[in-house]
Amino acid sequence: MNLSILQTVGLLISILGIAGLAIWSGTRPQSYGNINGSPIVAGIIMGTLVGGSSTVGTAQLAFNYGMSAWWFTLGGGIACLMLALVYAKPWRRSGCMTLIGIISKEYGPRAGLAASLMSSLGTFINVIAQLIAGTAVIAVIAPNLGMIPALIITAAFMALYVVLGGTQGAGIVGILKLVLLYVSMIGCGAMVLVLTGGIGGFLQMTGSIDNPAGVNFGSLIAQGAGKDIGAGVSLVLGVLTTQTYAQAVMSGKSDRAARTGSLISAFLIPPIGIGGILVGLFMRANHPDIIAKNALTTFTTLYLPPVLSGLILGTLFIAVVGTGAGLAMGISTIIRRDILQRYSDRMSDAKLNNFLSKCIIILVMAAGVLLSSGPLGDTILSFGFMSMGLRGAVVFFPMTLALWKHGKINKACILVSIIASPLTVLLFGTVWHLPGGLDPLFAGVAVSAVCCIVGRMIGNKKKTIRLLHPSHAEAEHLVIVIDSELGSHSSEIAHQVAGSMGIPCYDKEILTKAAEISGISEKLFKRYDERPVIAAYDITADETENMKLPPSGAFVQAQMAACRAFALQGPCVLTDRFASRALSENSDCIKVFIGADFEYRAKVYALENGLGAAAGRKKLHKLDRVRTRYYKGYNKRWGYAGDYAFVVNSTEEDPKALAEDLTERVLNSLGGTSRKQAAAS
After folding, report:
1. Residues in CB range of 156: below 8 A, 6 or more apart
2. Are 377 and 60 spatial neighbours (Cβ–Cβ below 8 Å)?
3. CA dist 274 to 9, 35, 62, 188, 306, Å?
4. CA atoms lying within 13 Å on the CB side of residue 447
């Protein structure tokens, strides 16, 4: 069936009007940061959440199962309520722009990278759902157009929507789109009641539907409690773990604006599904032979006034486009901020960021078209729910525990959770099936929960400062040796402790003493400080006699001899350079290890060496490997917590305050010895 002239006019008015607003709002000067009021926050959330699955997909599922189709919009409302009451404030207080950033900050870069990839996969599946929903609208507009051209047209509109409109456009257009969708869906529902003679007539019509499968069209669990309730839980967790909705909350100009915008969404989203349910059941009763996914679009063309029919078709298409575009924008943000920015400082360039964002969105759309045109099927809501389940399984527990159980969960267990839980969802959603029709989300979340519980039981081994060995009250002579990780402020802490106790601190002075003892050039000691000698000759040496290099062992032995010499002179603090190994048999020696989380150390290292964030990360990662191999080559237990009296984690801590705390704890371990006694001992 071809559209009439009036229907075409209505279609063009809605599509061109909304697209024009998107382009206009996108070309306005952009402001970044927390600048949106509650209406814009609500517009961004609903502009993405209310799309093909909430409208076309709801009518499709209602055509087959009745009221159980409400779970998508009902779950969306519950999720937005939780955003407002539980998550909005902690998200905004985290200091991270992405949910993956929260995970990466708490559990390290590996967990962040794994979560980025898995979460993006889940979001991408929902993009496929929106592409398929778009073809349902195009099938009414151009019935003779093939599947692949329809997918390409939908993808092109999605790419243009976000490339030309941007984030700010998504919020403004989201408000207009929601108003038009409300008019459309409530209008369609009202028309169904008019056609059936009211609620009584509608219920009578529903009871007369040819129903050989015995489906209870009035039940919220028509497909089975496990499947339908699981779909609702999947939707809730998916919204709470999707970057697009987090971005909306974080863009609010205040906590109140973010929470109010989320509350508006919570109360406005569920009613939209009612209209789709009424239409789906009406079309099942009166047009049982149509394709289920075309229920809503066919109803608008057959039963609504022509101009209004065209307006609704255009609005439905833009709703699909806006949701798909918003999801693609979320994928782009994750890839740029949480993956690419880790490996290149060039990502700080705004123009490059903007260009890459557009390229990523176009690539996402191209991949979506390729997969949607294959053998993946066309049940829109099943794609939507699987997408939500994947994201929920990956992010929910790790992100929640990072917000409320900071520093208490073992990082390795979180990494296992992030990888294993989405794979479990995929396996039980495709190859295997849970008993009783349970949604595969439950299997994935169960795996994640078990990993997190184990992680909590194991705990995070590093505390701010922890005493591991008993008192050193019998010590005659105080020597503190400090092993450390780069970027942990160890040198600053060591000098503060020494200064507070009134004893000397030997750092690079160990190299000078080692050169004096061994006769090896001090220049060579500094050149090969904390790294092995891997060649017999140094071709860069200034003097010929320094070209031939002694083996690493000669440097190590000389440094150990220097540490022993300093320790014999009196109380002191020795930092790194095998001091702990040299004094391993010294009962008077108090050993300390100072470290910090990798991301914090990378930030400190980059700042100290004038590097960009990505360059600092790369350099530190390389130095960590070399330095650890070097020390463990001559001291297998270097860095092993059980060998140290104190383990210090300096992450986000004030070095001076840590030094004061460490000093007091060292003195207490000596049986309350005063600073003056320690210096004189």
Report:
1. 365
2. no
3. 28, 34, 10, 10, 23
4. 24
Q: DSSP per residue over 485-496, as a string?
A: -TTS-HHHHHHH
Closest CA to 54 of 123, 155, 130, 122: 130
SS3 228: helix
CB of 681 closer than 8 Å to CB of 522: no
| 76 and 245 Cβ atoms separated by less than 8 Å | no
- The yes-or-no verdict on residue 462 having pLDDT over 50 is no
Which residues, 6 or more positions from 438, have their beta carbon under 8 angstroms from its beta carbon?
226, 227, 230
Pick from 370, 397, 424: which residue ends a domain?
Answer: 397
Would 530 be classed as within a structural domain?
yes
Which residue do the tokens 């750092």 mark?
A: 507
Please state, in angstroms and rounded to a whole number, the distance separating the CA atoms of residues 614 and 484: 22
Longest CA–CA separation in the chain, Å? 105
The H or E element spanning position 466 is strand 465-467
Domain endpoint, select from 397, 425, 449 = 397
Q: Cβ neighbours of residue 452 under 8 Å, at least 6 residues apart?
A: 397, 398, 401, 409, 413, 414, 417
Helix or strand or coil: residue 484? strand
| 321-228-201 Cα angle (round to 5) | 85
pLDDT band for position 468 (cuts 50, 70, 90): very low
With respect to residue 405, please indicate whether it lies within any of the assigned structural domains.
no
Window from 67-76, 209-218, 416-425, 475-484 with minimum mean pLDDT: 475-484
pLDDT at position 145 over 70: yes
For the stretch 185-220, pLDDT in tens is 888 999 999 999 999 999 999 988 988 888 899 999
Q: How does 538-552 read in b/e, with b if 16+ C-beta sit within 10 Å?
A: beebeeeebeebbeb
- 3-state DSSP of 271-286: HHHHHHHHHHHHHHHH
In the sheet with 589-595, reading across from the earlier edge strand, the strands are 465-467, 646-649, 589-595, 479-484, 572-575, 505-506
- As a whole number, mean pLDDT of residues 34-61 equals 81
Give the CATH number for residue 475.
Answer: 3.40.50.300
Geometric angle at alpha carbon 85, from 79 and 90, rounded to 5°: 100
Distances (CA, A) of 518 to 228, 443, 511, 555, 581: 77, 64, 10, 8, 18
Q: Residue 64 domain-assigned? A: yes
pLDDT tens, position by position, 564-621: 999 988 899 999 999 988 887 776 788 999 988 888 898 899 888 888 888 888 889 8
426 inside domain = no
pLDDT at 374: 59
Residues 383 and 506 in one domain: no
Average pLDDT over residues 83-112: 85
Instruction: State the pLDDT confidence band at 278, using cuts at 50, 70 and 90.
Output: very high
- CA atoms within 13 Å, Cβ hemisphere of 256: 0
pLDDT, residue 381, reads: 46
Q: What is the pLDDT of residue 261?
A: 92
| C-alpha triplet 14, 18, 20: angle, nearest 5° | 115
**Unique residue bearing structure tokens 């099942």:** 284
